[in-house]
Amino acid sequence: IFHFKGSGKKTLARKLAQRWNCIFIEASEVIQANIHEESEYGLQCQELLLKGQSISEELVTEMILQKLESLEVAHYGYVLSGFPSLSEEYMSISQQTEKIKNLKLKPDFLINIKCPDYDLCQRISGQRQHPHSGQVYQRSQWDPKVIEKHKKEKDQHEEGDEEEEEEEEQEEEETAKDPHNVSESFHQLVQRPEDILDNAEERVGLYKELMLHPLEELMAEQDCQCLIEVDGNQQPDDVFEASKNCICCYCCFNEQDELFRALSSYNLMAPRFRWRRSRWGQACPVALKEGDMVMGNPDLAVSFLGKIYVLSSQEALKTFMLNPRPYLLPPMPLPPCKVLVFGPPFSGRTTICNLIAHKYKGKV
């Protein structure tokens, strides 16, 4: 999960790891785990902290890479947050991205949280930390004016809904039990130096200058179906739902493997011979020829020359069975791509349309 500090990537990564029962890998989590387990790295961290020294970037990176190569991660999978790091004390950003590319278990999905610079800086500058617990609170959690505003809006939306009122009362009771109740102790919260607006703006500029381009290159190499971009201005739960739904959709798409395994066992051509999956997958070849991508119906699957084709309708099935070859010859399968080019008069729309059509053998 990529983006600058304060965008909510750690919160999202933790929720996804809990949802999918994966290992959550992040610098502070890895440090705490090693200290708790009293590993070799953990003892080194403890020794440095007792001396009042900071843990080096080299040691943190080694712990993260060791965790990524562990048997636990190989079994459960992982959600990685905060790596590559903006700090180049130990490794440059390009070296860090190369490490990600060369992992034994490369990421299946990349999640990029997008947030405008101004909104991000305002969010960071609104953060406050509790000096004793170390807990970081957003402005919406500690600022009485913002809390009151949100409470009024919530009351208006939930008026007359008894169930939601009961949930609200439960939440208020839980908050009252919190030893670090923000409403009571918000005056104790402090602003960290890195959260001051000028420092936040400087770090955002540094992020765009140093890290954005290597990350864009990493994302460009990823399968577009496995690259998820979410709006960082949404509420954390909405960002989580959007990311989770994208991953669910992809996983459901990959469930067609089960479909082909089932279909290949029907009407075997010969002992030990199964029908093979075609390059069209579950997409209907007739619909593809017409410029649409429609998933086929398993009940309308046919075999031709040892391969399985899944049609989307009875009409498509009849058309395909009459003469399948027009739907199988090159340049098929050709996933349809529709492009709209717009702009003011004389801006070059016609020229760019013709160039794109020529390059990708499309029609204007």
Automatic annotation (TrEMBL):
It comes from the Eukaryota. Coiled coil: none annotated. Keywords: Kinase, Nucleotide-binding, Transferase. Pfam families: ADK (PF00406). GO terms for molecular function: ATP binding; nucleobase-containing compound kinase activity. SUPFAM superfamilies: P-loop containing nucleoside triphosphate hydrolases. Residues 149-183 are annotated as: Disordered. Gene3D superfamilies: P-loop containing nucleotide triphosphate hydrolases. InterPro entries: Adenylat/UMP-CMP_kin, P-loop_NTPase. Residues 158-175 have a biased composition (Acidic residues). One of its GO terms (biological process) is nucleobase-containing compound metabolic process. This is KAD9 kinase.
